[in-house]
Amino acid sequence: MLSDSEAAELLSFLTCHTRLDVKAQAMECILGLSGHRDGRRFLHSKPDILSALFEMTSDPSVAIVKDCFHVFINLSADETLHKVLVSQVCVLPSLLKNLVDPDYLFSDQICTILSNLSRHEQTCRTVYPVLQEQVGMAKLVEVFCDEGYNPKANLHYIGPLLSNLTQLQDARNQLMDRQRCVVQRLLPFTQYQTSAVRRGGVIGALRNCCFDHAHHQWLLSDSVDVLPFLLLPLAGPEELTDEENQGLPIDLQYLPEDKKREDDPDIRKMLLETLLLLTATKVGRQTLRDRNVYPIMREFHRWEKDVHVSATCEKLIQVLIGDEPDPDLENLMEVQIPEDIEEKLKEAYAKEQEELNKEAEENKRQEDRRTDEMDR
Amino acid sequence: MAEDSDDGMDAFIDKFKTERYKNAFDENNWEEEFDKIPMFMKKAPENFDPKEYPDLACIQALVHDEDRSPEEKAQSLKDEGNAYFKEKNYKKAVIAYSAGLHLKCADEELNIVLQTNRAAAHFYLGNMRSALNDATAVKKRKPDHLKALIRGAQCCIELRSFADAVQWCDEGLKVYPADKKLLELRTTADKHKRAADRDARKAKAKEKKVLGEKEALLAAIKGRGVKLVQSSKPRRHSSDSDDEDEGSSSALAQLNLDGLSSKDATGAQVFLDEQGSLHWPVLFLYPEHQQSDFISAFCENNCFIDHLVVMFGEELPPWDTDRKYQPQNLQLFFEDEQKESLYHVDLETSLLKTLQHKRFFVKAGTPSFIVLVKGSSFSKQFLTGKRIQGL
């Protein structure tokens, strides 16, 4: 690692006035450091280098700024650096200001950094209040949903940022503000073909929102109408009878024969988990049954090949066709589970996961064998 | 599933879809109408007696008094318009507001109000386009004028431009993020838009289904080697597809046209049943008595004798004065117009077999057959000089 004098020299190069080739070399060195754990540990111990570095995001040379942001993306991906970045280098105000600047060239990089910083709860709790004050969740969503907002940046990573922020209750409250139109703007993006990052982020945020069962009725009501947007990515081109069609939510009726399902199995799983969350309340279960979700799931289950996703789908189908639980148990999320049963459930769940993994591996082996045979 | 809004606004607006407001001006020339109305003429008419028409005189004084500034006059006209508006006399309100705007006074705020109010008056008259134009003009000059934003969205909904309506609401919500009316309108417009999308999908699916059925029918007919002949007036069927498609789609069109143009106007047409058999409308001609019989659905697998036994079974037709049209006496022929021949048909053959004959051409979608009585003098006469062939 660098000695103290080397570190001091490096620091001296990190100014906007330094000659370009020297600056560039210094930046390259730091980029290298940021790429591995020891390098990052070193940088962690030198907050003055980090501060000087952060100043360089305003450097006149675009190439320098690009590398600079790259460094911060690497650093923000490492949780051990979060505290120094937020509290000592104080990156947030400047990042947030530039994020909502429609002409800023590096907004995408900012989104990635913020997304990294908000992933784990601890830093998320420090990031969120600053964000809420300086920008506000409503504005963040507005910027995110306005596709032409910044011609130089696609801002897709605001998706995962929203998903991360919504792990906090207050962020969810802001998103689900009944006096405003916030969460509704996200809904069309559950089918956004161009970016899986954006799509996944939006669905992640919606899933988190569905943990708040007090909001289920409102989310399922006409004011938001979240259900069709969760079902559309899972619905396929299979023809349903006229009767089945009539009972479906309007957006799912008479889908064309070229309708494709969501490509990414992780996202499919998230959608199913969100639907499952909605079935925790009586009103949710009622709504999903009344709106004819079952035929969609039936066709989906026939189509799904991934074992993990299938398993989640089966759970959902079970609830849809199962009997109503006792009145005491109506809100499944509030049921008190005795400790010994909770233990057994955990064990059963772990066992199930193991079996599913084995099954997935076996499937893969079979597939590989088949491919081998084909080569001959 | 959908709930009507509490304030009955939806029901009120729905009324405009069916009822035209009484005494409404024609949307296109209401401005011309103004000049015909004494109250708002630009120049005072030469002869009227102020004692006879005091209110007219008053208005004239108000409007045409040279001492008053344009702003004062415009203000009065605004008040005038508002008064009419309260009385639900929207036609006169429009006139008043227009007169005010026409003055082009320097008070921009006043002009905004005049135009916004006129938009409202037009809205209640059902003149959605005029109302939208006014709202748009206001929005351009004052992007944060809430009443204009709401009105614009409402007009778009009435005009079924739902995507535009959502756009208006979003523009409004940027400035007034918590406005209840804007939120409500947005939800409504979005809902209508999604319903309209569904309707389009449904129509497309139906069209596809109908087309598929027609194609299956045509394929079934062609597959059996049955030849269809187009009617003498071929219809031009415009399409971008290649010749084959054009041929089949125009043949389909012919099938439609011909099926419906059958003499009995029953609209009967050949169809494919669930078991995959064709049922044809068939015409039996009795030239001896200038009569005919129409079977609307003759299954291709049935034989002629099956039908004839029923048709000439218990009761012979009234025109058969000689009582000779008994099933066992009947002879069946089909005509090959091109070769000017008659082909004799064995009554025990199925319709399908007959249609598949290389010289059988189904004309106007309806196979037809000539029925004669064996050995009768008419049949001898009829068949003389004609080329007869067996099957």
TrEMBL record, chain A:
<comment type="similarity">
    <text>Belongs to the HGH1 family.</text>
</comment>
<dbReference type="Pfam" id="PF04064">
    <property type="entry name" value="DUF384"/>
</dbReference>
<feature type="region of interest" description="Disordered">
    <location>
        <begin position="344"/>
        <end position="376"/>
    </location>
</feature>
<protein>
    <recommendedName>
        <fullName>Protein HGH1 homolog</fullName>
    </recommendedName>
</protein>
<dbReference type="InterPro" id="IPR039717">
    <property type="entry name" value="Hgh1"/>
</dbReference>
<dbReference type="InterPro" id="IPR011989">
    <property type="entry name" value="ARM-like"/>
</dbReference>
<dbReference type="InterPro" id="IPR016024">
    <property type="entry name" value="ARM-type_fold"/>
</dbReference>
<feature type="domain" description="Protein HGH1 C-terminal">
    <location>
        <begin position="274"/>
        <end position="326"/>
    </location>
</feature>
<dbReference type="InterPro" id="IPR007205">
    <property type="entry name" value="Protein_HGH1_N"/>
</dbReference>
<dbReference type="InterPro" id="IPR007206">
    <property type="entry name" value="Protein_HGH1_C"/>
</dbReference>
<dbReference type="Pfam" id="PF04063">
    <property type="entry name" value="DUF383"/>
</dbReference>
<feature type="domain" description="Protein HGH1 N-terminal">
    <location>
        <begin position="99"/>
        <end position="269"/>
    </location>
</feature>
Automatic annotation (TrEMBL), chain B:
<feature type="region of interest" description="Disordered">
    <location>
        <begin position="228"/>
        <end position="249"/>
    </location>
</feature>
<dbReference type="GO" id="GO:0051879">
    <property type="term" value="F:Hsp90 protein binding"/>
</dbReference>
<dbReference type="GO" id="GO:0005829">
    <property type="term" value="C:cytosol"/>
</dbReference>
<feature type="domain" description="Cns1/TTC4 wheel">
    <location>
        <begin position="273"/>
        <end position="380"/>
    </location>
</feature>
<dbReference type="GO" id="GO:0005634">
    <property type="term" value="C:nucleus"/>
</dbReference>
<keyword id="KW-0677">Repeat</keyword>
<dbReference type="GO" id="GO:0030544">
    <property type="term" value="F:Hsp70 protein binding"/>
</dbReference>
<dbReference type="Pfam" id="PF18972">
    <property type="entry name" value="Wheel"/>
</dbReference>
<dbReference type="InterPro" id="IPR044059">
    <property type="entry name" value="Csn1/TTC4_wheel"/>
</dbReference>
<dbReference type="InterPro" id="IPR011990">
    <property type="entry name" value="TPR-like_helical_dom_sf"/>
</dbReference>
<dbReference type="GO" id="GO:0006457">
    <property type="term" value="P:protein folding"/>
</dbReference>
<dbReference type="InterPro" id="IPR019734">
    <property type="entry name" value="TPR_rpt"/>
</dbReference>
<comment type="similarity">
    <text>Belongs to the TTC4 family.</text>
</comment>
<keyword id="KW-0802">TPR repeat</keyword>
<protein>
    <recommendedName>
        <fullName>Cns1/TTC4 wheel domain-containing protein</fullName>
    </recommendedName>
</protein>
